Amino acid sequence: MAKPLVSVIIPVYNDEKRIIDCVTSVYEQNQLNFSLEVIVVDNGSTDNTLEVIERELKTKYEDLVVETCEVPGSYAARNKGLSVCNGDFTAFTDSDCIVSNNWVEANLTQIKGKEVTTIIAGEVNFFKEKGKFTEQSAIDFESTFSMKQDENAKNGKCITANFFCYKKFFDFVGEFNSTLKSGGDVEISQRAVGKGGKVVFNPQASVNHPSRNVHELIVKRKRIIGGNWETNLKRSTVLDRVAFLTRLLKMFLGRGKSVLFNSNLNLRRKVGLTYLLFQIWVTSNVEFFRLLFGKEANRS
Q: pTM for the whole thing?
């Protein structure tokens, strides 16, 4: 029996330092029970990312597929990868992630026998990146609130840092919404669930993600608000927009309360994390009103 082919799609934008480790970790998978097709899609990088891919990776892995996508946005890049991939299954991760040694194998085991509209949401763990300043409050935020794939799966969501499905999934559900700068993974997950699909959490298929610092978390928050604006709020009613702002406030208060009662944090770390939550809440509101008055959603 022929081994299944798994296409791993990795969008990259201005990430020349981390793309090498990411791709290397994918190729280091034990391919006893499957074959790999690795596709890197450069999304208009303005640094040396594309040159590094060609010089450092393409020479080492001759079968590496390198594509370019000039349409801004990682979901447009992922769609470009989908347009050229040949796998029976499709896996997604990000250029700053390091996948575990059994990542593909664990996903194949989990998806076996499941419906074509199933998404496997793998675990995401955080680590402090060498040579990069990352505040303790940012590390605490990531560990406490970010990329909780078990919770995502329960709510019918999955993020593309660790997203695995059948290739035929996209025949039934459609491609990613390429107009979104953020949140396209959640949008397609919910679209799949709306068509009867399921999101299944898989703790055995993990990827490691570097903890973002405060600046990166603020930038990410702007992209998230932009994604919400383009998906739901741009054509919504005043009441819907007020409800959204109310949810932002409730999230800030709820997270603040959870920090207050977090026994793993000392007083200094609680104060630092609470202040970061306040910064994120203010950023969310400022970005909302910026978009309301006609500004474009941020890419980065």
A: 0.81
